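Internal tracking record. Fields below are filled automatically when a chain is submitted to the structure queue. Please do not edit lines marked as system-generated. If the sequence contains nonstandard residues, flag them in the REMARKS field before resubmitting.
Queue: standard
Priority: normal
Entity type: single polypeptide chain
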Amino acid sequence: MAAPRVVIIGAGIVGANLADELTARGWDRVTVVDQGPLPLTGGSTSHAPGLVFQTTGSKTMTELARYTVEKFAGIDLDGEWCFNQLGGLEVATTPERLAELHRRQGWATSWGISRRTGSSILKRSRLTEGMPYCRERTAVIMSSVTRPNLTRL
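SYSTEM-GENERATED OUTPUT FOLLOWS
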């Protein structure tokens, strides 16, 4: 057997994706090693919260997150999903947080994320329709942003 062309240490999110990207570009003899059994090797990936926000202040990082979501959405193991887009809700309870939500929604709109994911700013009255937990706290909730494609690994 030929020696590896490259050895990647760590089979977490970075190592596994690096191996995938290299093989997709035609590299062969790519070896990935890790300290424990897959998928819970004990590294940082196995205990990360797993949320993938696609909107950041950097268009480059936003595009990287978009690419990551699209790539992971196509992965399954024996027909079962490995990447589940559950959605999420960000809530503003202060004027500063509300300004931040509007800023992030502006980035999402200008970079095409909100069109693709359906994220939008909700008024307080809309947020509390059918969400008893939020309805009980309407005095402190100013607004929110829906993130329908927020993802959990």
